[in-house]
Amino acid sequence: MKREKIIILIFAGAAGLALSVFASLALGSRNIGLSEVIAALLHPNSGSFESLVIRERIPRTVFSIIAGASLGVSGALMQAITRNPIADPSILGVNTGASLFVVSGIAFFHISSANQYIWFALAGAAVTAVFVYRIGSMGSGGATPIKLALAGAATSAALSSLVSAVILPRTDVMNAYRFWQVGSVSGATWEGILSVSPFLVIGLAIGVLSASALNALALGDDVATGLGVKTGLIRIIGALAGVLLCGATTALAGPIGFVGLMIPHIMRMLCGPDMKFVVPMSALGGAILLTVSDIIGRLIGQPGELEAGIVTAFFGAPILILIAMRAKVRSL
After folding, report:
1. Helix (H, G, I), strand (E, B) or coil at 113
2. Closest by CA position to 74, among listed 56, 63, 62, 87
3. I need a labelling partner for 97 at 20 to 30 A (CA). Which of 87, 121, 165, 214 fits?
4. Which sign does the torsion angle of CA 217, 221, 222, 226 carry?
5. By mean pLDDT, which of 220-229, 231-240, 321-330 is the weakest?
6. Cα torsion through 246, 295, 291, 43, rounded to 10
């Protein structure tokens, strides 16, 4: 890709992220003007109403950025290691696995804090990812895109039934779960952000560092092996990063779908197939998408708000249909 195009994309992405951050701070049930936003940021302890509103919106804006970036990179990694154009934490059932473990933790182990949610969500995401890949690898041809998609859909349906079986007899668990399950960044706190940040930083770092090996993997296992890439190891490393990113985000925000599906496709259209560009640009695009989705949910749901997970599903479902129609579920 030409250097000029890279620079334009980076600046456009940075400008889009800056605008989305400003809009996230300014728009909601109480809209705040540009000058008031700047004044509130420069004087956070002024005690004005605008300053209090901005102070409450900053954590959810920060979390929208890091959660969207994590989901975007997670989707890019899963699509690369499975060579499946519709791979995504929600499509492959990883989100549902994390949800089941969190619900089970709430029901049977009485967990209630973000730190506790994280470990249960990571365990659920990891177990589900391994299970789906093993099921999708059975039979001739190995883990083909269609087999992985079917295995993920079947697993997600089965796990959703188990989630219902756990929460229906327990009113207290249902009340705790029903707001979390739709996927939202509105409940973000600094404590929660700090608790998930180490997992997200490690996952993002692994994703960026493994980009070159993932490029070789796209050429096929035989060619990648000939180039000195240990295909099994890089798949494990990429899956680990994807699980860390997806599981930690799901623990705090709930299962937000379609971000990891849409953004990598858009970035490959803009940047080409080189994972050294797709991974960091997916982080940038995911951050913008989830932040904008949160803003849209606030505006159209007034005087309340519509959760970001519902907004991403609204945009993501038609894109999934288009991808399936155009790619015909073939390998990348």
Report:
1. coil
2. 87
3. 214
4. positive
5. 321-330
6. -120
Q: Return the pLDDT at 287.
A: 96
Q: Is 9's pLDDT higher than 80?
A: yes
User: Structure tokens of 254?
Assistant: 């709930």
b or e along 106-116 (b: 16 or more beta carbons within 10 Å of the residue's beta carbon)? Answer: bbeeebeebeb
Residue type, 249: T
The whole-angstrom separation of Cα 201 and Cα 297 is: 27
- pTM, two decimals, is 0.88
In this prediction, residue 324 carries a pLDDT of 65
pLDDT beyond 80 at 267 = yes
Q: What is the DSSP string of 133-200?
A: HHHHH-STTSS-HHHHHHHHHHHHHHHHHHHHHHHTT-HHHHHHHHHHTT--STT--HHHHHHHHHHH
Residue pair 53/44 in contact by the 8 Å Cβ criterion? no
Using an 8 Å Cβ cutoff, are 145 and 85 in contact? yes
